[in-house]
Amino acid sequence: MTTTAHAKPVPVPDEASEAFFDGALRGELMLLRCRACATFMSPTAYLGVPPRPRCLSCFSGDLEWAPSSGRATLYSFAIMHQLYDEAFAAEIPYNIAVVETEEGVRLTSQVVDCPNERLEIGMALDVIFERMSDEVAVPKFRPRS
Amino acid sequence: MGATAAIAGLGITEMGKVYGRTASDFAGEAIALALKDAGLQARDVDGLLINANHSQEMAPTLQFSLGFVDLTLLSAMSAFGSTAGSMLAYAAHAIQSGQANVVVCVYADAPLTNGASISESAYGGRDFSAPGFAGLRFAYGDYGPANSMYALALRRHMHLFGTNHDQLGTIAVGQREWALMNPRAQMHKPMTIDDYHASRWVVEPLHLFDCCLVSNGAVAVIVTSAHRARDLRQPPVYLRGFGQCAPGDNARAEREPAVHTGAATSGKLALAQAGIELSDVDVLELYDCYTYTVLVTLEDYGFCEKGEGGAFVADGKLGPGGALPCNTGGGQLSSYYMWGFTPLAEGVIQARGQGGERQVAKHDHVLVSGNGGALNFHSTTILSTREGDARG
User: Fold this and answer.
1) Do B160 and B271 belong together in one domain?
2) Nearest chain B Cα to A39, which residue?
């Protein structure tokens, strides 16, 4: 177990993301789904922008949270060499991954239990949930065995 | 459409590690330089379009800081790095409709502070405490404004088409060769392909030399009617065509803007409006936040087939003496980073024939691109030395 100078930044769930983080705590990867046309969507277009208010396919504003199967493939990955935060010093170089879930949704996350040189676009992945605190867990993905 | 609009003035401040000045201060200097360049006075200005990056203090109150009064066109605009093209189009339309006569378009920013690294600067993306989904990326160690997103896009292109670092390195090396002939460029040291390969990974597959610079500074241009521009101090640079395309977000599985950008649609629109073909373009000034941005933009404009960008650039045709001069001032990779005003400023210099040692001999038509987000926003502007082309 590595000790770092300070802990990784733990996300702070807010009203818009509560359902997602609650799902992660109980082991479910929550996505948005349109009640009108059943299209699944990522909660945000990319991490850092606000949650989606409308369906990507039919523009309905009637969206609900629905669980993903948690099965995904690796769409692309990048290896972070630049140190921005001491909390990650021991992990550099680490991966940032975009996965595509079975529901056709792309999410930014990380692949765990896989050395960087084994990462391959298209590889099959399953969601896991990493506890960051008593209140917060985040979804990550690992190679399907 | 009414009479053509033209760029009549260009102002560029000192660039790079210029500390202790605000963006508004840089903006004021760039505008003063552009007015002087055109032979106009501050009181002639009746339009001001502002492109602020992190220096939101200017948006849209820069007018007050600079003392302009009774403007009939004012807006702060942003589609990130594609904004310059949108501003020029808006300015040109306002001039054509009679809403304004002399429009200043300005970009300024001052992210760098003395003693802080780029990752510690305003571009570092370090708002760790951002609530909700905005904070989730930091739990994954996904820091920085855009490096990871472009690295992900490039990896995708490499996977689909076999694009490699020898090819990307050709872009970086060619642009450095151009920069060595640009006194304003921040990078003065020659770069070999070995230097490129040896440069450290930032976010793999992006080497340091795949990534643009960060600069404090400002660029301003003055847009007026073609008629008026002909009576001013500089050779007019006619604004002949505009295009824009925002292809939408990357998280939809059926779409792939990481490798199919808005340049495809934007370029066609701009060329059609200008009444020219791709083969009429003499000089390319392409948005180059990363080497990959240049490569994918060339493909989407149609200079080569999708996926063949790597092979297309590998012979060095973009560099000095090459068949397709591109980013002739060194671009954002090797001269300075002012969003879309980097390619625009060099486009104006080339169209006027004022490039000195790096001037491209034939410069009738210059294609300038803008790009923002993670390849989510695109603009195209066609600059010409002629107001129109008679075509048979």
Assistant:
1) yes
2) B252
Of residues A2 and B64, the one with the higher pLDDT is B64
Within a domain: B137? no
Is B389's pLDDT higher than 60? Answer: yes
Taking an 8 Å cut-off on Cβ atoms, the answer to whether B204 and A81 are in contact is yes
Asked whether residue B139 is assigned to any structural domain, the reply reads no
Q: What is the pTM of this model?
A: 0.96
Range of the domain at B58: 1-112+214-234
Q: Is residue B63 part of a domain?
A: yes
H-assigned helices in chain A: 18-25
Predicted confidence (pLDDT) per residue in B250-271, tens digit: 777 778 889 999 999 999 999 9
Model ipTM value: 0.95
- pLDDT at A5 exceeding the cut of 60: no
Domain map (residue ranges) of chain A:
18-143
Whether B40 and B176 map to the same domain: the answer is: no
What pLDDT is attached to residue B1? 47
SS3 (DSSP) at B21 = coil
Q: Which of A10, A42, A75 sits opposite B139 (nearest CB)?
A: A10
What pairs with residue B48 in β-bridges?
B74, B104
Which H/E stretch holds residue B204? strand B201-204
Note the helical H segments in B67-180: 83-97, 133-139, 147-161, 165-179
Residues B311 and B334 grouped into a single domain:
yes
Answer for the pair B3, B218: CB distance below 8 angstroms, yes or no: no
The DSSP symbol for B81 reads: B
B165's torsion region: left (phi>0), alpha (psi -120 to 50) or beta? alpha
Handedness of CA A18, A20, A23, A24 (dihedral sign): negative
Token pair of A2 as six digits: 């590595």
Window 108-127 of A, Cβ < 8 Å to B: 108-110, 121
Which of B299, B273, B269 lies closest to B284, judged by CA?
B299
Q: What residues contact B383, with CB distance under 8 A and at least 6 apart?
A: B7, B237, B238, B239, B240, B347, B348, B351, B365, B366, B367, B368
Closest residue in A to B376 (Cα–Cα): A45
- Considering the domain architecture, whether residues B292 and B220 belong to the same structural domain is answered as no
The yes-or-no verdict on residue A1 having pLDDT over 60 is no
3-state helix, strand, coil in chain A (%, to 5): 10, 35, 50
Residues B294 and B228 in one domain: no
pLDDT digits (tens, 9 = 90+) for A62-118: 999 999 999 999 999 999 999 988 999 999 999 999 999 999 999 999 999 999 999
Do residues A109 and A78 touch, judged by C-beta distance below 8 A? no
Structure tokens belonging to residue B43: 């009181």
Domain count, chain B: 2
The residue-averaged pLDDT of B68-94 equals 97
